[in-house]
Amino acid sequence: MTGAATRVLVQGVGAVGGIIASDLLAHGHAVDLVTNNAAITTALNTAGLRLEHAGEHHHWPARAWTRTSELSTAQRYDVVILSMMAGQVVPAVTESVNLLAKGGYFVALQNGFVEDAVAAVCGHERVVSGSVVFGATMTEPGVYHHTFRGRLYLGELDGAVSVRINALADLLKGSSDIVVSNNILGVLWSKLAWNCAVSALCAVSGKLLGELLEDDDARVLALNSYREALDTARAHDIVLERVAIDHEKYYLPRGASAAETAALSRRFAALAERYQGVKPSTLGSLERGRKSEIPWLNGYLVEQGRALGTDVRVNAALTAMVLEIESGARRIDTANIGILKMQIG
Predict the structure, then answer these.
(1) Share of the chain above pLDDT 70, in %
(2) Residues 6+ apart with CB under 8 A from 222
(3) Predicted pLDDT of residue 273
(4) How many other CB atoms sit within 10 Å of the CB of residue 7?
(5) pLDDT at residue 274, as a whole number
(6) 106, 241, 310, 313: most buried by Cβ count inside 10 Å?
(7) What is the pLDDT of residues 113-158, one digit of tens each?
(8) What residue spans define the domains of the chain?
(9) Does the pLDDT of residue 241 top 80, yes or no?
């Protein structure tokens, strides 16, 4: 695969998929888009893909379909980028695996861990992983705002710096600063730990991330969740990479004194200004009455922790509470922070 000859399918054209698609289109690549949303499909096909970045407005004609089944069965793709919610990944891969060209592969860009589930459909050799650390929103169907350039980590699951990973980095280099990692699992676990610590707490309480970090009880719960994630990663021999925050700086040892806990909590609170106005996707899903990504975030961490006997009680309680809200048995409420505190002890 080289340059403009690379045939790309982007599955999931929300904020992240839209930014990646815009860069590919801008550089003349052959790109097809599957949206899973009829309104986005219509907007892309009628008005093209529209992008706002650094005060400039751009527009490119686009080819979009709502369902993978609408694509020609004769079509073949070198790269299939998976940029939808985690719960939609396995159905998407199942529908598109026969559209991979010889040597083609999937690129998983989800929050949480979906790589094993994707590999179960197509084989580990056809999976590349990525972690998005750039800012993007879709302001209306087919209209995207690149809020900050950030980074996109890419890597082979076995840590190899392969020909194809370098080619993929070159393909996607316009969307953000690309980091080719020889330890993508360490990147994924570091991001997972951060997401587990804050996303579910925002979801059950209804708080934005900055607001959550201003809550004393929520911060202590988040620090305990974070410790569980780091302990579980290390139990699996994962060498953590620094991605969202410095994991050593925010590690709360089990049995820490009240003074140590208070000091680390104050340090954690200092992050509030950085994250003012940020709404994690788990909260957004619950507010829209949709299934969240909790099974691939805190739920995945609980599975991995229990497999090796690490303590994951905070994340288990968070997972259960989010699922209760999804089922209608509980409401999003700031009081859920206090309930979690009492449950965990």
Answers:
(1) 99
(2) 197, 198, 201, 212, 213, 268
(3) 75
(4) 19
(5) 75
(6) 106
(7) 999 999 999 999 999 999 998 878 899 999 999 877 788 999 999 9
(8) 3-182, 186-344
(9) yes
Residue-level length of the chain: 345
The whole-angstrom separation of Cα 57 and Cα 51 is 6
May I ask the CATH class of domain 3-182? Answer: alpha beta
Q: How far apart are CA 205 and CA 51, in angstroms?
A: 33
Residue 61, classed as helix, strand or coil, is coil
Look up residue 228 and give its DSSP letter.
H
Give 186-344's CATH code, choosing from 2.60.120.10, 1.10.10.10, 3.30.428.10, 1.10.1040.10: 1.10.1040.10
* pLDDT tens figures, 40-75: 999 999 999 999 877 889 999 999 999 999 999 999
Contact call for residues 213 and 276 (beta carbons, < 8 A): no
Positive or negative: CA dihedral 233, 236, 241, 247: positive
Q: What's the rounded Cα separation, in Å, for the pair 183 and 158?
A: 8
Give the contacts of 263 (CB within 8 A, at least 6 positions apart). Answer: none
| Alpha helix ranges (H) inside the chain | 15-26, 38-47, 89-96, 115-122, 163-172, 184-205, 209-212, 216-235, 258-269, 281-287, 298-308, 313-327, 335-344
Query: Can you tell me the distance from the alpha carbon of 275 to that of 215, in angstroms, rounded to the nearest whole number?
Result: 14
- Are the C-beta atoms of 270 and 305 separated by less than 8 Å? no
User: From the CB of residue 273, how many other CB atoms can be counted at a distance below 10 Å?
Assistant: 10
Gap between the Cα atoms of 129 and 142, Å rounded: 25
Amino acid in the structure at residue 96: S
Q: Which of 102, 122, 106 lies closest to 1, judged by CA?
A: 102
Per-residue pLDDT tens for 72-112? 999 999 999 999 999 999 999 999 999 999 999 999 999 88
Contacts of 296 (CB under 8 A, 6+ apart): 86, 87, 110, 111, 112, 113, 114
Give the burial class of 57: count Cβ atoms within 10 A of its Cβ; 0-12 exposed, 13-18 middle, 19 or more buried.
exposed
